[in-house]
Each structure stands twice: as C-alpha cells, then as structure tokens.
Amino acid sequence: MSGVGSGKRIAGGWMLLGGLLVAAVLVSLTVGQIMITPAELLRGLMTGSGPGSLTLRVLRGPSTLTAIGAGAVLGASGTIFQILLRNPLAAPDVMGFMSGAGCAVVAGVAFGLLIPLPILAAIGGLVAAVLVAGLAFHRGSRQSPLTLILVGIGIGFFASAVSSFLVIRMPPQEAADAQRWLTGSLTARNWGHVLQVFGLGALLFVVLALQVRAMALLELGDELAAGLGARVERARYGLICTGVLLAAVGVAVAGPVPFVAMMAGPLGMRIAGVKHPASRLTAAAVAGATITVLAEVISRSAIPGLQLPVGVMTGIMGAPYLLWLLWKEVEAGEV
Amino acid sequence: MKAAIGLALLFFVAIALTLVVGVRDAGIADIWNAFFAFDANDPTHAVIRSVRVPRLVAGLVAGAGLGMAGTVMQAVTRNPLADPGLLGVNAGAAFAVVVGALLTGYSDSGMMAALAFPGAAIASIAVFLVGGARSGAGSPIRLTLAGVAINALLLSLVSAIILSRNETLEIFRFWVTGSLAQANTRPIEAMFVALVLGAAIAAVIAPRIEALALGSSLARGLGTKPGAVQLSALLAIMLMTGAAVAVAGPIAFVGLVVPPLARRIGRHVLRRELAVSAVLGGAMILLADTAGRLVVAPVEIRVGIMTALVGAPVFIFVVRRMKPGALT
C-alpha cells in the first residue's frame, strides 16, 4: 500500500516539476517590453504570421529554448558531481570548471582561433577539472571532497582573472560584449544556439544514460560497487568527463552562468521527491531549465528598457540558496 | 634585521616604480624636481604631482588597509583563507557606495564613500554569522563559501545597478574588481584618516586577540572579554577595509597573500605582523599596479586583476597546505 502511495506522491512531484517548467516558459514567451497573450502565441504557432509568430521565431523563442537547453545540461552536470562527491556544494560552477570553459572561449576569441565554441569550452573545462584533481591530491591519500571543492574555487578565481585579463586587451565594443558573456548571457540567441545546445545536449544525455547503472553502483560505495562488478575508477572518470562536457555545452551557448548547476539538483530532487540517480538527473535537468528560463525573463524585464545579463539574476537567486545551505549546517551543528 | 632591510628595500622599489613607470617616462631627477623644484610648465612634473602621487598614496592606503584587515581577520578567525575580498567585506563596502549613489543621484562624493564603512561592517557580520565563526574557529570551507555567496550576491547587485544607470565600463570595472586608474578623483585624505584610526584600534587590541587565540576560557581567565575584542576587531576591519575600497574599489587577495608572509617576518607577534602587513600590502598593490601598466602597455590591466592572478595560486597553495581534517 505504502508503495502505491509513494508512487502517487512521486507522480504528483513530477507533474509539479513539469508544470513549473511549462509555466516558466509561458511567462518567458508572453512577458517583456511588449506583452503577448497566449492566444496570440497559439495563433502565431498555427498560422505562422502575426506578432505571436514573430515572438516565437525571432524575438523570444530562440532565447527561451536556449535557456531550456542550457539549464538542462547544467542541471544534469551539477547533479553528476553532487552524486559523485556526495556533497551539495560540488558543482561545475562552484568548482571552477565553468570558469575554465569560459576562459578558454575568451582566449579563443581573443587570439582569433577558428575553433568552434563548444570545443573550446570543453577543452577549458577538462583542463580545469584535471588541474583541480591534480592540485587537490594530498600525499598519496584520496582527495577529500572539501579539498576538491576549495581547490576548485581557487581554479575558478584564477580562470576568471585570466579571462578579465584577456578581455581588457580586446577592442572596446568586443570587450563589453565579452564582459557580458562572462557574466552569463542569453541575450539575442538564435536558432543556431538552439540547435547546438539541443544537439550536443541530446548526444551527451544518451552517453549519460549508458552510465547511469554504474553511477547507481558507485553510490553504494567503491568497495560494494567493485564487488557488484563495476569498474570503479573507469566509471568515475567517464562520469566526470560527461559532467564536464555537459557543463561546457551550457557555457558555449550561455556563458558561465553561476549557480544553476549547483541549485538545480537539490531543487529538482526535492520537488519530484526522487532518490535514484536516473530520476535525480532528469529532475535536475527539468529544474535547471526552469531556473534558467525564469532568470532569463526576470533579467530582461526587471528594469524596463534594460537587458541585464542572465548571470546577474542567477547570482542574485543562487547566492541566498548557498547561504541558506550553509546556515542550515550551522543550525545542525555540523561544524 | 635582514628581513627589515629587505622589506624596506621592497617598499622603496615599489614606490619608485610607481612614480617612474608610465606613458610619460620620468627619471629620478624629474621626480625630485617635481617635489622640490616644481615647474608648473613642465608636463612631466604635472603628471607626477596630479596623477602618479595620488595613485601612489591611494595604492598605499588600499594596500595597507587590506593587508592589515586580512591579518586581523586571520588572527581572529584563525583561518588562513580569510581575506576581506574573498569573504565579501569589500563587496559590502562597494555595494553600499553604489546603492548610495543610486538613491541620491550623486555620482560619487566623499559622503558616498563614507557609506563604505557601514557596508563593510554589515557584510562582515553576515559572513561571520553564516560562516559560523562566532563559535570560535569557524570551518574554513564554510567561511569561504559564505564569502563566495555574499560576493556573488553583492557584486551581482552592483552590476545590475551600474548597468541600469548606463554608467561607463570604466566605472563598472572600478566597482567590481578595483583599480587605481582614477585615484586622483577619490577621497584619499579622509580615507587615510580612517585607515590610521582602524590601524590604531587593531594595534591596541592585538595582545587581546592573541590571548583569545589561546582559547576563550583561558582568555577570560586572563581578564579578556571575547565579545569586546571581537567587536573592536570588527570596527578595525570595517575602518581599514572601508578606506581601501573607497579609494581603490574591491581589490581581492591582498589580505590573503600578505598575512602568511607577515606572520613569518613578524615572528608571530601580532603588533609586528600588523606593521609588516601594512608595508607588504602597500608594496604588493603598487607592484601589481605597475606590472599591470607594463605587461600589455599601452593597455592598462586593473590592479584587481593582477592581484587575482597572483592571489588565486596562493589560495590553492594555502588550501593544499591545510590538513584535510582542518577543513571541516
């Protein structure tokens, strides 16, 4: 009986999570300098003309879809690290992987390299991850999650400083754009961005689906996982790679937006009420998409006539969450 | 003695470089004459007096303030990762000034700069409450993350406010990373007074902070009130950090890099450490600023970026040296 009850509760959780995303998307498409009613949107979708159609095709559709895609990959990426390190603070934004990816993209642009942004971002993210793992290594003993997180924060500081350094050398207009992008920006996205984030994202989600079983085993602890036939180290490295690449795809289309990756997992897990890694990853992707879409619409409508970079908004949303997380630990006395 | 001579040498090299290096080359003779035989028609003299001297003094105020504030914070929290920049105290000061400018419409007068002090104080209290530092030695990771969060929040708000007012990129950069480029427009004299006041408080309470480090029950036995000491320390941090931010913006990492060196040179006597921090902090900012003007000249790299390029590796080094058990 209780099984059926919890099943119902979980189904309700998923509906709530999905409903929130749909609501966020609707708000994002209708709200702005010019308000568009849902009826106009529907008419635009059906007839392919009128203000609704223009909104969907050009003005808001691509940015909203890019926000969904970027949020989904970042949410999944964050959850991979949170599960691997068993720590809600472990996420590619906190640990400097996204700053590394952003730094590589800025370097590519600054030096005029003709390498696609996702590849630059992937290289930057992987280099940052290798540096974090290598520098957190402590005299032969296994790296503690806390050392990894702190070293990651340090790598993030360094990558951001290098990015700022590179930005200064650019021509003024380019520098202003780059600065904005480094905060995390979804302004004026086009269908190319949509295609990129959904194409690469889908590919990586397939890869991730193949790794979920190993992930579930790793959650039991290394020894038990090895006993059950998992190749522990290989599985872990594979998951780390997927996690970094997912984050890089997000960075390539939206810049290093802070805190989405960190917030999405715990939020999705709580709303959907799920525990298994596969469900947690899915819930995190949906929650990440919702957060990013909401942040995008708030960032462009909070101050009339001004488009703030979306990263300013996720910073304002995410920082209180992080403070609450830390405060909760103080209350619990987990010094 | 050797350390003292080295320190003095470093300090004077830093000062000399700040005065000499720039778009317009100035020799030692020019500098001497600019002070003692000023010729109003000599453009080099004018540049030295109106641009480089303010820059020098601003750099010294900011460096001394951040260096000493970092030393006080590390001594009180016994946390080698404490830095007014990383813990969001700088961001609090910057945020308060920017909000003040937004509310009154003034771009940036001395009154606005005075808001840096309450801003720094509120951010310090917030970060120590959330970071759990009130229960003696707070956990380094929690304090650091509380700083990351407060920094992210306040600097996001600062960005939003500045962008919404269509200010120039230069102003944005000043209030987000810190710079000495417009030093001659900052209220340097008033902030120097605040710095001296903060340093005096820190020097007076230094022995009591050391007593606290032995454990609060032992300190109480020796007649030290922990609450009063912490409050005075907060006041000193507020004055020194506020002064630094008001003249140079929120420069991070100076308060992280300087204290461990000061501990070594000052041989673990807090008053000596404070004096060394002031000198080292000033030298660090001036050298970083000069390097920033030289690396990709004629483009100038802001001093806050240079200190981060040096400071981030130091941060990782300090983390690596901490025992894993000491992190939680």
Number of domains of chain B: 1
Strand content of chain A: under 5%
Helicity range of chain B: over 70%
Q: What is the SS-derived class of chain A?
A: mainly alpha
- The radius of gyration computed from the alpha-carbon positions of chain B, rounded to a whole number of angstroms, is 20 Å
Largest sheet report of chain B: none
* Structural class by helix and strand composition of chain B: mainly alpha
Show unreliable segments of chain A. none
Uncertain spans of chain B: none
Polypeptide structure, described:
The complex is a heterodimer of chains A (335) and B (328). Chain A is mainly α. Chain A has a single domain (2-311), classed as ABC transporter involved in vitamin B12 uptake, BtuC. Helix content of chain A is 78%, strand content 0%. Chain A is built from 14 helices and no strands. In chain A, helix 4 (61-85) packs across helix 12, helix 6 (117-135) packs across helix 7 (145-168) and helix 9 (191-219) packs antiparallel against helix 11. The two termini of chain A are 40 Å apart. The mean pLDDT of chain A is 89. Chain B has a single domain (2-322), classed as ABC transporter involved in vitamin B12 uptake, BtuC, CATH 1.10.3470.10. Chain B has 14 helices and no strands. By secondary structure, chain B is an all-alpha fold. The two termini of chain B are 38 Å apart. Chain B is globular and about 65 Å long. The longest helix of chain B has 35 residues, at 43-77. Chains A and B meet through helix 7, helix 8 and helix 14 of A and helix 7, helix 8 and helix 14 of B.
